[in-house]
Amino acid sequence: MFKKVHLRLTLLCAGSTATIMIIMSLCYLYVSERSLYRNQFQAFENDINTITTNLEHQTVISMEWLSKMESQGNYLFFVVDNGIPFLYNQLSDSGEAASKNKLLEEFLDSSQSKISASHYAYTFTSPSTGTSYIAGVINMGKASSLEIIILFSLEPLKSQILEQRFRFTLIDIAAVIMLTAFAWIFTGRLLKPIIENQQKQIQFVAAASHELRTPLAVILSTEECCQNAPQEKLSGFLKTIHNEALHMSALVDDMLTLSGSDSHHFSINMQPVEIDTLIINSYESFEPLAKEKFITLSVNLPENPLPTCSADSQRISQVIAILIQNAISYTPEYGKIELSLFYKKNHFHISVTDNGIGISDEDKKKIFDRFYRVEKSRSSKEHFGLGLSIAYEIVQAHGGSISVTDADGGGSIFTIIL
Ligand code: ADP
């Protein structure tokens, strides 16, 4: 499912960006081509103006001058008299231009001592070859029927435009490829946390159903037994049902706490809290339980008075309770558990140290995961593998951190920093 979404998002991102880019490229090309044509036309007009001015100031127009102008400006010159091509056209390439120049000079000399020229320019396409030109016609004045036609081929400009279009197409193709690759990576990164979250949700639901199935099965089978059981055994069965129901209720409470944190409905009521008092309270609550297991529970608090800490006292007490409960569960009889607190650089460090079975490095990475238990068989029925994940979420919601390290001589140290 996510593969399809990934692909669609990539196409959407890359497609929309590429469309905008291509439209902008086309607009640029349009504006650029128009200005190239305009500039060319302008240059042609300027040239023709210069030629006209030159012609006006010359008493004689030499064939040489025309040929020079022709070769300099890539122009084609035609001299026309009354619509009939003049000799220059036939002779310009023949090598006899020099001898025949005289004729044109004489002609111009005799007809007009000073040329008063006017001109006009327009585009013209040869019907036979399809080649486009800018054409300019210089009229040699009212007294003369002589016209000079100047053609400038637009083919070099056209090939320059074609080259520009080709270059833009290549650039656009490369950009589209890069955009698609970028969109693929970018959307992949965007989707990654969503995919991970969904996988976690699936695992959570699967693990929760699995955990709930066991007490449910016990309740159902015990209820069946109740139907045919003699009176004296009935209270035992009912007690089992009650215990399993309590077990399920505790599990559902834990799951609700975690789902509340997932949906950010985790209520944290921050208030100034005396952390040392909180630790003493926790110690007093768990001392009887520790005694039952012949475990020595001790407290190590700083002697100097501490500032208050902004925290949710109930939630932090819940975290400390989880850690002490775990320490008691995973520490053998006659073991030791120490609660300690120290304050350094504006941070409260709360530690629960035990000399119990300890946690391997491999398991240290996973114990904060939901439903993770190092050895399912080793844990008692009250352990669902949710305690540390709840502790983790609460500490995170406080902006703090929780970590585990090995204790000297075996056992574990869980440290909360607030
Ligand atoms: P559980 O409800 O099973 O204790 P937790 O999330 O609190 O779940 O703990 C996860 C696992 O981490 C436990 O199943 C246990 O294997 C391990 N663990 C937690 N605390 C300790 C400890 N103090 N010493 C050794 N192992 C521990």
At a glance:
The model is unreliable at 96-117 (pLDDT under 50). This protein has ten helices and twelve strands. Helices cover 58% and strands 17% of the residues.
Indicate the percent of residues in helices. 55-70%
Major sheet: size, sense and barrel closure?
5 strands, antiparallel
Order of helices and strands: HHEEHHEEEHHEHEEHEEHHEE
What is the straight-line distance between the termini?
41 Å
Instruction: List segments where confidence is low: pLDDT < 50 over at least 5 consecutive residues.
Output: 96-117
The hetero molecules present are: adenosine-5'-diphosphate
Write down the overall geometry. Answer: elongated
**Content of β-strand:** 15-25%
Count of β-strands:
12
Q: What would you call the structural class?
A: alpha+beta
> What is the average of the pLDDT values?
83
Number of helices: 10
Strand order of the largest sheet: 2-1-5-4-3
Radius of gyration: 48 Å
